[in-house]
Structure formats: structure tokens, C-alpha cells
From TrEMBL, chains A, B:
Region (Aspartate): 198-201
Family matches, as HAMAP family: Asp_tRNA_synth_type1
Subunit structure: Homodimer.
Domain of life: Bacteria
Domain Aminoacyl-transfer RNA synthetases class-II family profile, residue spans: 141-556
Positions that bind L-aspartate: 174, 220, 449, 490
Cell compartments where the protein resides: Cytoplasm
Reactions mediated catalytically: tRNA(Asp) + L-aspartate + ATP = L-aspartyl-tRNA(Asp) + AMP + diphosphate
Gene name, Swiss-Prot/TrEMBL: aspS
Positions with a binding annotation for ATP: 220-222, 229, 483, 535-538
Keywords from the named record: Aminoacyl-tRNA synthetase, ATP-binding, Cytoplasm, Ligase, Nucleotide-binding, Protein biosynthesis
Descriptive protein name: Aspartate--tRNA ligase
């Protein structure tokens, strides 16, 4: 080793020892007769001391020639510091340097390599290797390693086997867009990169592997949003001879184990909610349950407390639904106007926002006082179980649309009220998703999860009569309003799988051509099986308390799918194109 | 769970318990009044008992209707077996069945799901999910999981961080052929799949990650031999502030740890050999040192014991080199002829094979008696340090060529003499590889390892004068004659890296265009670093004592790069081609 110790391990017990350290120059303070240098490596910072009269002159001269981020090797004696720094592990000692070697000089970095940097996103991505030197970024990747390590340990202990499934697979038009790879040896043919190892893990169950997992790269050629990457990582799992309940218990165990091991947080049992309840009470299939503010319907399936009073908007609405924001009756007119403008933005698209103030003094005041009597309003207040000082916010319109809009209002109010603390973790299972959803544009039914998800046995008759009513044995895990994982009990019988493909509009030939290998496999003794996959990047970002998954990926791509550091994608040579039997064709 | 126990865990201590088991029907023996069924899962076999008069009639009827590989669930009481089977863990008990449910019937499999199968390669690959049910194949993948697990554990304990590097990277013409991925969002541009994460792991060192590893898929679009796969897995590692010695010690430690943990074998310290010695003494850069039979030169740099006696073949040869095969003086004329034909095959291409028999009775006999006196031959025998009963085998010709041919003869004789036991593991470091090798066809120098390998500091002057003489700080790990890993101390200074690209025939523009990101990174404080990568599939096959890596990959591809199970690669839709701005072009 070029060093005897790292920059993070020396303490008072090493005093008087001669040590060799290597690392990067973090900071130099030259006070005339004394020069202090902070030397940095992955493990910490150690202070080096150069002193006129005591340090060899040529060493002092070299020290004064150093710049930020120079890589040096230094030898010296560990001594006790006069003024200790209790903020760092090595703060009680410093090194009286006797030898100093520049291993590699450094140009001035284009941004500050500090916890708070002056570099913008673009420049930090271009010099990602410098950005990764910052503690904050490196710690994210260390956290990622810990999450992976404890995931493997938990699953290994439960007899899961990690099996690598292929990356060069077959393109299937169902689902998102595939990345494809031209095959040189099979001209005109292509591999696809997997969007998930779904069919392979099911085949492993058919093969009797019983318990499989894999932490695995997956790929989707979709237009990228801030939060998406063309390549991402999943914790992919599958089990045989289990029920949905077994999956929920096993993977609730995984998540609680991770929180305990990685964050030191002991989570309570994970509550469960049906998809139907989630939509009705939160207007979302991934409700943030760190705070209450459940939806209350003034006009809906159960009652109508709004019609016939001359307020056309409510009279015409299918649903009048609201939330009660605690302590917000003090909102000023200006604040209400601002909130109303906020819900009218095209991203949310509400027509307006009706409020009822239940003032601290017990009076009620509403933006629809003109139509509703105090008695009417007090009925509403009672329905909402509002307390004096609360503010009721109401939206109306078509059911699903109004709920979706109110979900946004609820989340916004939750944020404004400080109810969405990233360190407060609330995990939730959402169950009983619909099997199918109707694509208006395509005029056909789509699998809500994927085509291998099994309908609830009691709902199978609806496959012939009412596709929208079929519920699936599918489940999502939601943490703080973010979907971190999802899965389902799978179809394992050929006939049902074939019926599912028919429902999705596949001809028997298409089904056989694309998924024949799986349906054939089901004929040779397929066990009942079920599984789940977690978005690993997302899970890590949640553990890190950060919104963007990009901060938890070593070398992420930007929103155009480019790696600006290596400048990829790029053109390739004509020779390569020829060998692959393809040509560039930008004519659409 | 659909079961209370697996098929591998019941023993006498469970007698009288009611249990539920699930699994596959392995075998049924119907002896009239009694029916026995072997139920199989990943964990083992359990015998089920059905008995006329005791088993409910409808259960017995169902049992008799079962076929091989049916998936069943069964309930019954654990009872002690009359005739125990000590070959299986559950051999002391059986289950007296009271309930039986067919979870999924099975068609007759196209081959026997037994340790010894009747299925050929092609049919087993097409039904890989059935082949994977066989103990032998499943155990290979379980072994693979164990090797991965202990690798991670060893490296985690040494403070290595596993970091995922990108799969969608940039194509570079240096090295093997890339698989490429057209970018839809960047028309006319392509990603490449990584042949290794080489540049990324070096950037992680520049980023201060200090110790990195990754068990990672890599890709090479090469014509496939039996032993190659287009996608393969590496254990990829890199360390900063280390010397070659540190890498050798750290990864010798890894391999010894794996042998200890996975195989229960405590390996001695790993011997080391220079590339020059390996070539001189074994004619190979990956010598199999399970047996001796080192090369001895009768005519070479040091001496000439063959010239001037009228044997033109030796007189004209640059090198006369041989091995001494212990106890083989008894080889008959027929055996010698057969061996001579063997070395003359085009795969080896020797012109002939000269032998000297040192008979048990002390006499010497050679195929070149006509030219060499007994005294000559006795000198040869002494030079070889041969014992009575040994057989000396000699080849001659141009040095490298003769050595390469003799390497084949040595390995063949080693096999024939039973010296190459797959359970006898001999690990070896080969050091000091040449930095460059000359490509006759291309008429230029190539990096023997890769362009990022550092020359030995003392050989740097030769970069200007004698490229063939420059040795690299590069090393391979060889086990039983198979290269399982290799690496090098890396270049970490921009100027030397640039010089290296020049030597390899890059223009400055080409070097900057393809590897500018790395050379730029070297300017911002790159630490000295070194690394290694192990072929994970190969390592697993060695641990399993099997030659083919394919047996250790869950879903391998055949020699045309096809996955015959899912029928991939395949054509894709015109819509996909258009979106990707490419067209099929089979005109060359």
C-alpha cells in the first residue's frame, strides 16, 4: 500500500507514530510561519502541519506550491492538536509532515468540491467524476451499497437464490418501448434489452427454483422526465407455492429490515388499503399517509348535501368532494385566491375551488354563502368533522377527475402545513388493483400491471361480462406517497393466460409468437407463484431523503438520454453499420 | 404458504405430524395394494404412501392418474419408513397421504428430468426451464450464487463499495466488437454495451472511491466458440493508492477465501511466475501447474546438444525443446505413431515428434538413433534429468511456434497420465506480461491487456526504441491452466496515456474523441490505481469442475448467439425501425 492509514482513522491513540497518508488537497491555510493542509480521501479528512524551522524547507516549499485537488503522499508524525475540532473523527490530531510527494497535480476544478458546491447541474454532470468526490454524492452511493447489501442478506437468509437473467432478450410490443440491439450474426434480427426479467423469473419458478431474486438493470426507451432514467435497477423477486399474503409478509419484512439496518428505524406493521379505498379517500393509488386529511364527499354515492340550492356548479357535478385543512381558517382572501389560481393551472385543471371557513369563534364563512344557508354549511362542517379554525376545501365535477385534482390539493396543503417530513416514513400496501384499464386513445383494454397478473378467482366470471370490474391479485408498496414496489400473484395455467391475451387484443398467433415459450412452459408443470419488484434507485433516494433518483446513480443520463461526460450516444463507423446489416434512415 | 414443509426437511423427529407438501411428481411405483410416489422440490425428495384400504379411495384414484412432473399439493401424516433409504435426507420417513390436489397437470416432458438425462443439447436448450429442474443443473446455479455471495462478503469486509456502472455507454473501435443500441432520441447515434466497465471504474478511482467492485454483465459481439457467450459476467475490481503487490495479495485472498468457503479447500500461498518463464517452461501464458513436465531445451539460447550430427531437422531449427513423460518408455510403436499423428493435426501443426525411450533396463532408444550416438542420447537424458522408464518427447522449429506446439503435447500427456484431476486446484499468478503485441495482419502494435495498462517504469524508455521489449505491470490469475482473471496497474497520468494512444496508432483527435473524458479526468487529480477482473462464469465452472461455462448460466445462448427457448433475436416491427431512424440493409 502507498499509505499506512487512511485519512479517516487516526486519533490520539496514534500519537507519536510515523504514518504515511495519501489523498487529495482539500484546503490550505498559510499563516506565514505555519501552513495547515486538509488532506481528504473517502474515509475522512486529516490535518497536515508544516512549520517554518521544523519542517524541512523543501517540503514547506512543495506544500506552498500545492493547489486544490492535487494528489499527494505524505509522511509524518501524529501529534496532538492544540485546538481540537470535534466535528471530524480525526479532529484531535494532526500530522507534523516530514516528507511530501506530489503523486499527480490537478488543474483547478470547474466547481467547488465541497458539500455546498457552486457548480450547476450541467457542469457537474460533465465532470461527474469530480461531483462524485463531494461527500454528499459519495454518501448516496455508499447508502445504495448498504441497501443492496442488506437486501441480499435478508433474502439469502430466506433461501432465495440470486439468478442472473439475460440482458439480450426478445422484443415484445406489449408495454413500454424496448431498446433493441441489432444482431450481426442474424442479419435483420434484433435483441431487446429487458424492461424487467418478468418472463424469465416465471420460467425459473416453472424450473422449480422456488425462491428467486436479482438486483438487476432494466431498460425502457421512454421519453424521460426528471425522475426517469433509460436504465434503472430493480430488486426483482419471485416465490412459488405462496399466496398473496406470503408475499406481503415476506417483503414487508424486507422493507422493515432495511429501515432497521440502514436507517435505524423500527417500523410498525405495514397497514393495507384497497385500491378502491385509496382512490375514494385520497384520489390516488399511492396515498401519502404521513397525514390524514381524507376526502369527504358532500355529494356522491352515499348522500347529497349540495343539490337544489341554486348553485349550478354543484348541481351539475357528479361528485362534490373536499378535504379539511386543520387550522387554515385564518387563510386570507389573498391566500385563497393564490390557492384557487394554483388549482386552475393546466397541470391540475380544476375549474375553481370552493371553501368553507370554520372560524375559531365558531362562525362559518364560505365562498358560496350566496347559495347555502348557515344551516347547510354547518351540516357540511359536521360531515367533515371539522374543528373551529379549520378550512374546508371543495372541488366538484366528474368523479375520477375531481378526486385526482383534490389529491393534488391535499398533497399541496400537506406540504404547506409541514405534514410531509422526509424523515417520517409511512409504508402502505395498496391491494386489489383492477386487472385491466381502458385505453381511450387505443380503444382497447390494457393490463394495469402486466399480462401475467392473475385475476382474483372470484372475479374470473367478469372476464366474460365486465372487464372493468375484474380485480387483480396485485399489490403496490407505497412509501410517503411514492410507489416503491409492486407485484402480483401470477397466472400459471395456460388456458387462463391465453384468455388474458385474448382480452388484451392479441390474436392467438401473436400470443404464441411473442409469449409461446411461457405458455408452453405452463403445460409442463408450472407451480402457483407470485412476485414483486422494487424500484431500487427510487428506494435508495427515499432512504436518502432526496427526491431525485439521479443523485443515487453513479453515472446517470440527462433528460435527452445522454451521458454528457462520455458524450454518448454517438455516431458509429460505417463498417459497424455494414456488419450489422443496418443503415441510418432519418426519413420518416 | 401452500405448504407446511419443503420436500427436503422432514425426518424422524416429525413422525406423527400432519404436514402439507407441494412439488413435482418425480416417480410413481404402483405395486397393486400400495402406491409410492416421490415428490420433488428444490430442497429434496419425499416419499408419499398410498395404501388400499387406508387411503381414501378418491385420493388413491387421483394418485394413480398422476403423471411425471404434475404439480401437486398433498396432506398427510409423517410415518417412519419400514425400509429406509440412507441416500436421501428424508429417507427415514414417508407421508401417509390423506388429501391430494393436482395444482397443475403436466404434459410428458420431452426428456427425462433425472441426473442422467436422455435429452440432447438442442432439446434441453429449447426447454431450458425443464433442464433447470435437473439436480445437476440447479446445483450449478446454486454454486454460482454461493460464489457471488462469498465474493461480495469478502470485498465488503475490505471496505470495497459495489457501484453499478452504466450499460448504455459509448462505442469505441479499440478492442473487440461492440454490441450497439440505436438511440431513438438522438437519431443516427448509438449507445454501445460495455465490454467491461474499465473506464468507469478508473473514473471512480479519480472520484476517490478508493475501493470499487461490481459483479457485472459485459458484452462482446464476437463469433462464438463453445466456450464463449455474447453476454458474460465479471467480478470487476479497482483500488487506489496501491502497488501491484497489494492487488496480488488482496485477490489471492479472495480466491483462497472462495476455495475455503465454497469448496472447503485451504489453498497454499499462490506461486508466481513471469510471463517469460511461463512461455519458456510451458509454452503458454496460462500453464497448468498441476503437474511438472517443464520444457527442457536441447538447442536454444543456452546450449546446443543436437547440431552437427547430420539430422537436418534439428540443424535447421531455432529451438529443439522437449518434455519428459514419466513412466512412458513402455509406449508401443503404435502408441508413438498415434501420438505423432496427433501432433501433426492442423490444430497443432507440428511436422513430427522425436522421442527418446529411457528404458527401465537403462538402455536408451530413440527415433533418431541413426544420427545420434548413445553418448549423445545419454547427454540428453541427463539434461532432462530423466529416470529409467521415462519417455522424452521432442519438437523443433521456430521458437514460439515449437513451444506452443509442445504446450499442447504437454497438456495431452498430462491428461493421459491422469495428472489433470479437476478436483486438484493449482492457482498461479503470471506476471510481467509484455505491454504490446504486434498484429502481423494489421501491421501495427496492439495493447496486450488494454490501452490503460501501465508500462513498468524501468521499461518506459523502450517506448521510444523497442516496443516489443516493454513489459507491463500486468498480471493474470491462472487456475489449472485456465485464465480466470487478469488486470494491471493503470496509467494515471495524462501524458503517458496520450503517449500510449500514439503508440497504438491513434491520432490525437481520435484519442481525444474516444477517450478524452478519461484523459481530461487525469488532469484533475487522478490517484495511482490498479485493478483486476475475474471471469465469473469461468470461475464458477472451475469450482464446479466442469469445462463449459454454459452449464453455469441460467439462460445461455447457443453458438449463433440465439436463445432458442425464447427464439431471440427476432425481427422487430417497422414502426420500431422508423422510430429508431434505422433501416435493414443487407446489401454489403
Amino acid at each position: 500500500m502507498l499509505r499506512t492509514h487512511t485519512c479517516g482513522e487516526l486519533s490520539l491513540e496514534h500519537v507519536n507514530q510515523d504514518v504515511i497518508l495519501c489523498g487529495w488537497v482539500q484546503r490550505i491555510r498559510d499563516k506565514g510561519g505555519m501552513v495547515w493542509l486538509d488532506l481528504r480521501d473517502r474515509y475522512g479528512l486529516t490535518q497536515l502541519l508544516f512549520e517554518e524551522g521544523k519542517t524541512p524547507p523543501e517540503v514547506l516549499e512543495t506544500a506552498r506550491s500545492l493547489g486544490r485537488e492535487f494528489v499527494i503522499s505524505t509522511k509524518g508524525e501524529v501529534i496532538e492538536r492544540l485546538s481540537k475540532n470535534d466535528k471530524i473523527a480525526t479532529g484531535s490530531i494532526e500530522i507534523r509532515v516530514s516528507e511530501l510527494t506530489i503523486l499527480n497535480p490537478a488543474k483547478l476544478p470547474p466547481f467547488l468540491i465541497e458539500d455546498e458546491t457552486d457548480g450547476g447541474d450541467d457542469i457537474r454532470m460533465k465532470y461527474r467524476y469530480l461531483d462524485l468526490r463531494r461527500n454528499a454524492v459519495r454518501k448516496n452511493l455508499e447508502l445504495r451499497h448498504q441497501v443492496a447489501r442488506h437486501t441480499r442478506s435478508y433474502l439469502d437468509n430466506l433461501n432465495f437464490i440470486e439468478v442472473e437473467t439475460p440482458v439480450l432478450i426478445k422484443s415484445t410490443p406489449e408495454g413500454a418501448r424496448d431498446f433493441v440491439v441489432p444482431s450481426r450474426m442474424n442479419p435483420g434480427e434484433f435483441y431487446a434489452l429487458p424492461q424487467s426479467p418478468q418472463t424469465f423469473k416465471q420460467l425459473l419458478m416453472v424450473a422449480g427454483f422456488d425462491r428467486y431474486y436479482q438486483i438487476v438493470k432494466c431498460f425502457r426507451d421512454e421519453d424521460l422526465r426528471a425522475d426517469r432514467q433509460p436504465e434503472f435497477t430493480q430488486i426483482d423477486c419471485e416465490m412459488s407455492f405462496v399466496t398473496q399474503e406470503d408475499i406481503l409478509n415476506t417483503f414487508e419484512g424486507l422493507i422493515r429490515n432495511l429501515f432497521s439496518k440502514v436507517k435505524g428505524i423500527e417500523l410498525p406493521e405495514v397497514p393495507r388499503m384497497t385500491y378502491a379505498d385509496a382512490m375514494r379517500l385520497y384520489g390516488s393509488d399511492k396515498p401519502d399517509i404521513r397525514f390524514d386529511m381524507k376526502f369527504v364527499e358532500l355529494k356522491g354515492a352515499d348522500q347529497d348535501l349540495t343539490s337544489g340550492k341554486g348553485f349550478g356548479v354543484f348541481d351539475d357535478a357528479e361528485l362534490v368532494v373536499g378535504i379539511c385543512a386543520p387550522g387554515c381558517a385564518v387563510y386570507t382572501r389573498k391566500q385563497m385566491d393564490e390557492l384557487t389560481d394554483w388549482v386552475k393551472r393546466p397541470q391540475i385543471g380544476a375549474k375553481g375551488l370552493i371553501y368553507v371557513r370554520y372560524n375559531e369563534d365558531g362562525t362559518v364563512k364560505s365562498s358560496v354563502d350566496k347559495f347555502y344557508s348557515e344551516e347547510d354549511l354547518r351540516k357540511w362542517v359536521t360531515t367533515f368533522d371539522a374543528k373551529p379554525g379549520d378550512l374546508i376545501l371543495l372541488l366538484s365535477g366528474q368523479g375520477d377527475k375531481a378526486r385526482k385534482q383534490l389529491n393534488e390539493v391535499r398533497l399541496e396543503m400537506g406540504s404547506r402545513l409541514g405534514f410531509r417530513n422526509p424523515d417520517d416514513y409511512r409504508v402502505l400496501w395498496v391491494l386489489d388493483f383492477p386487472l385491466l384499464e381502458y385505453g381511450e386513445a387505443e380503444n382497447r383494454w390494457f393490463a394495469m400491471h402486466h399480462p401475467f397478473t392473475s385475476p382474483k378467482p372470484e372475479d374470473i366470471p367478469f372476464l366474460a361480462t365486465d372487464l372493468g370490474a375484474v380485480r387483480a391479485n396485485a399489490y403496490d408498496m407505497v412509501i410517503n406517497g411514492v410507489e416503491v414496489g409492486g407485484g402480483s400473484v401470477r397466472i400459471f395455467e395456460r388456458d387462463l393466460q391465453q384468455q388474458m391475451f385474448e382480452v388484451l387484443g392479441f390474436t392467438p398467433e401473436e400470443a404464441q409468437n411473442q409469449f409461446g415459450f411461457l405458455m408452453n412452459a405452463f403445460e409442463f408443470g408450472a407451480p402457483p407463484h407470485a412476485g414483486i419488484a422494487f424500484g431500487f434507485d427510487r428506494l435508495c433516494s427515499l432512504f436518502g431523503g432526496v427526491d431525485s433518483i439521479r443523485d443515487f446513480i453513479a453515472f446517470p443520463k440527462n433528460n435527452s438520454g445522454r451521458d454528457v461526460m462520455i458524450d454518448s450516444p454517438s455516431t458509429i463507423e460505417d463498417k459497424q453499420l455494414k456488419e450489422l446489416s443496418i443503415a441510418i434512415s432519418t426519413i420518416q
